[in-house]
């Protein structure tokens, strides 16, 4: 990488390091993150650096950039179109039978059905790299988007709507049209903008006016997307405040978790991904690491355990020269994977742990996602 590329990389790494340092020095993680999101100039500087790195400097090096995107896309195709979904589902069903457990979901379409078009949520997207694949329906979100095709969203404060259609319409709220008389189908309903609360829109003209007045780049046909307005931000005031639960086939965290300052906030991101995924959906994680495969193996073993407590099973793992690629599947029976997690954490407690990991509280692994950088000394 040339001198300019290294300068841009330092902007990205210094931002991550500064947030982790403030957290380690005792700042409240919620207030710390809120303060960070209000510094518009810092956010734009970071977004610009990441965008230029990815599209100019990393692009020339296939191993550092394109392989991350192509690795995820290849994993998605392998899972949905090359038999992995059915093979893994059948394996889980045998596991449930052995444990005398029942599936949490009884809709058989979740078991083997391959979507005609895969619905993807790309979190921390920056410049929407997965939009080049025609078989993916991508919703790209980022704290500070570098491209107009990416919608502004703070994933940590994003709400996941788990309400049913009946609940969404207000359970008797007088000012909403009954579902059978809606001018806009339920999946096209948006909310926004409002500084204190969102409101439902059930009229095509209102949707059109919202788009024009707020200059948003999402369409009113986006399924389950709720828009709000941020009165504290002078730029990109309209943001995604809510997404529909169990509505995505894939959630992507490409270089996301390293940005998040605390282990519990990273866990919250993973839990949110779980709630956004359909049963049998997958979470694809790319995390940077140029060291040899076993250098941080303990940390990624803990990831497998932590996500199993949520109900994920790891179905793919690969170490490339500059990153680890992992795929976690939202299982059909959460209890089965939680039992595995409990066995594995008990086994780890009985083994010798490197001294640099002494600060890990293994009683809290079920709600914390650690990264190797958590154990680096700050200068």
Topology summary:
Blueprint: H1 3-24, H2 29-37, H3 40-57, H4 66-81, H5 84-99, H6 109-112, E1 118-123, E2 136-142, E3 151-152, E4 159-161, H7 165-168, H8 204-214, E5 225-229, E6 238-244, E7 248-254, H9 263-276, E8 277-288, H10 297-310, E9 312-319, E10 323-330, H11 334-349
Organism: Halocaridina rubra
EC number: 2.1.1.-
Binding site for S-adenosyl-L-methionine: 124, 142
Structural summary, described in words:
Keywords: Methyltransferase, S-adenosyl-L-methionine, Transferase. One of its GO terms (biological process) is methylation. Belongs to the BMT2 family. InterPro entries: Bmt2/SAMTOR (IPR021867), SAM-dependent_MTases_sf (IPR029063). This is S-adenosylmethionine sensor upstream of mTORC1. It is a single chain. The protein has a seven-stranded mixed β-sheet, sandwiched between helices. It has a three-stranded mixed β-sheet with strand order 4-6-5, covered by helices on one side. It is of the alpha/beta class and 379 residues long. It has eleven helices and ten strands. Strand 9 and strand 10 form a beta hairpin. The chain has three domains: 3-57; 65-156 and 248-379, Rossmann fold (3-Layer(aba) Sandwich), CATH 3.40.50.150; 163-244, no CATH class. Helix 1 packs across helix 3 (40-57) and helix 10 runs antiparallel to helix 11 (334-349). The protein has helices at 3-24, 29-37, 40-57, 66-81, 84-99, 109-112, 165-168, 204-214, 263-276, 297-310, 334-349, and strands at 118-123, 136-142, 151-152, 159-161, 225-229, 238-244, 248-254, 277-288, 312-319, 323-330.
């Amino acid at each position: 990488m040339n001198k300019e590329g290294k300068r841009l990389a330092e902007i990205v790494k210094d931002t991550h390091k500064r947030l982790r340092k403030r957290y380690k020095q005792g700042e409240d993680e919620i207030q710390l993150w809120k303060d960070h999101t209000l510094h518009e100039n810092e956010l734009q500087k970071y977004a610009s650096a990441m965008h230029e790195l990815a599209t100019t400097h990393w692009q020339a090096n296939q191993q550092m950039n394109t392989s991350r995107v192509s690795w995820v896309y290849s994993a998605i195709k392998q899972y949905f179109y090359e038999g992995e979904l059915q093979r893994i589902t059948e394996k889980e069903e045998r596991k449930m039978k052995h444990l005398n457990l029942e599936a949490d979901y009884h809709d058989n379409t979740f078991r083997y059905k391959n979507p005609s078009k895969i619905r993807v949520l790309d979190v921390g997207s920056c410049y929407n790299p997965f939009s080049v694949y025609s078989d993916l329906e991508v919703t790209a979100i980022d704290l500070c988007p570098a491209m107009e095709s990416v919608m502004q969203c703070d994933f940590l404060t994003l709400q996941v709507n788990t309400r049913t259609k009946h609940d969404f319409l207000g359970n008797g709220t007088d000012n909403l049209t009954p579902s059978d008389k809606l001018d806009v189908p339920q999946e096209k309903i948006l909310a926004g903008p409002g500084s204190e609360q969102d409101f439902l829109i059930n009229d095509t003209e209102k949707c059109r006016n919202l788009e024009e007045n707020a200059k948003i780049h999402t369409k009113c046909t986006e399924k389950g997307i709720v828009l709000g307005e941020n009165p504290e931000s002078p730029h990109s005031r309209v943001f995604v405040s809510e997404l529909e639960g169990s509505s995505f086939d894939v959630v992507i965290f490409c270089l996301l978790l390293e940005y998040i300052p605390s282990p519990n906030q990273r866990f919250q991101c993973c839990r949110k991904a779980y709630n956004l995924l359909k049963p049998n959906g997958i979470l694809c994680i790319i995390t940077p690491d140029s060291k040899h495969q076993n250098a941080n193996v303990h940390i990624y073993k803990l990831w497998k355990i932590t996500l199993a407590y949520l109900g994920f099973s790891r179905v793919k793992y690969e170490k490339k020269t500059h990153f680890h690629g992992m795929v976690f599947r939202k299982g059909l029976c959460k209890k089965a994977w939680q039992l595995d997690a409990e066995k594995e954490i008990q086994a780890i407690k009985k083994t010798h742990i490197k001294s640099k990991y002494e600060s890990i509280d293994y009683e809290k692994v079920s709600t914390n996602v650690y990264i190797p950088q958590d154990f680096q000394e700050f200068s």
